Amino acid sequence: MRISDSIRLSFNALTSKRLRTSLTILGILIGPAIVVGLTGLTLGFSAVLTHQLFSSLSPTDIFVNPGTNVITSYTVQQISHLPGVKSVVPYYLISGTIQTPSGPEPTEILSIDTQEASLAFPGLTLQTGTYPPLTSTYGTVVGYYIAHPQYPGQPTYSSGQTITVVMNTPDGKMSKTFLVMGNFNEFSSAFADIDRALIVQDIIGQQYYGDKYSGLIVQADSVSDVNKVVTEIQNEFGRSVSVTSVEQFINLINNSLSAVSSLLFIAGASSFIVAFVGILSTMFTTVVERTREIGVLRAIGYTRRGIMVIFIGEAVLMGLLGGIAGVGAGVGMGYLLTSLSAGGSGGNAAGPRGAGIISSTHITPVFEPTFMLEVVLITVIFSLLAGIIPAYRASRIEPAVALRYEV
């Protein structure tokens, strides 16, 4: 008996029962489709987050936020003298609401030295207008979605217009009117939701908070110095401050998405168990229906091993076809889900202050060929295991009994 003969007999057996074979393959492909589709979507999401972090922030940025103590000018001075530190940019982040004809709209006022901010945020660029002068107490540059509202009925603000904001300050709610001097291009960041914020000079924050800052942006001399500077700040201040670098942001995102991916894989793996049971049931039914055929094959010289190879071959072929079809379906599902999500307003991932990292950004799923091959291989192995017991049972049928068997 040649292997090619066994494969041919296995293939002919599958094509003779096309409906049953198709339904079994359909049950098999669900597992690979779920695993490949959702994993590709997760990898694509991770790639977009990483790209946006590196494109919007400088890789040398280090963010220092208050821990057990407030951040003051003394903190700024101490960090400035640490080796490897290029600059320290303090900022104030003030919550507030924009007073519009349709009602108040929540916003944040980022009070910062705009010259330093442009270095810390290389992806933050002006669409129109200019930054207010360093000593300006009334000029502002508005975020993209303040100048270009996402929803109908909201007012637009462009250069030359005024915008009134009620700010939450230590002295209570304070109303202030700013002159819009420009607006930014769309900017997604883990630092703050700049697209829905007002950027003003740091002199305005000083009026309300003095030298008690919301946080610091520390720039290291080079990317290689980042971890060293982070360690130095932690050693110097301990738990009185919270320190996060762009690299740590990315590691946190990747770790979180890896955990999600693992959960999705486990959920998809349950479908493999269902497929295993489906193949087992199909193969047992096939053995019963082909008992006389088994007797004929044994009578013309097929060995017990040859009978096992035929039935195991059927299971493996179904697993291979189901695995390949499942991978293809998973790729299609990944692109379908991203196209459906593109119709929405985009996802929001939380940064250190709940800021949106992704804003109406299309996610392209990422499919790794090696992973897809592994999924097909796992599907074939499950099918092989499911076919062993029915195949063994078929090989133990005696020829004389099989030839007398009536279905």
TrEMBL record:
GO molecular function: transmembrane transporter activity
Cell membrane as UniProt keyword: yes
Membrane topology: Multi-pass membrane protein
Transmembrane among keywords: yes
Localization (cell): Cell membrane
Keywords recorded for this protein, A-Z: Cell membrane, Membrane, Transmembrane, Transmembrane helix
GO cellular-component term (any): plasma membrane
InterPro entries to which the protein is assigned, alphabetical: ABC3_permease_C (IPR003838), MacB_PCD (IPR025857), Macrolide_Exporter_MacB (IPR050250)
ABC3 transporter permease C-terminal domain span: 266-399
Membrane-spanning parts: 21-49, 263-288, 309-337, 371-392
Residue ranges the record marks as coiled coil: none
MacB-like periplasmic core domain span: 21-235
Family: Belongs to the ABC-4 integral membrane protein family.
Protein name stated in the entry: ABC transporter permease
Organism per entry: Metallosphaera tengchongensis
Phylogenetic classification of the source organism: Archaea, Thermoproteota, Thermoprotei, Sulfolobales, Sulfolobaceae
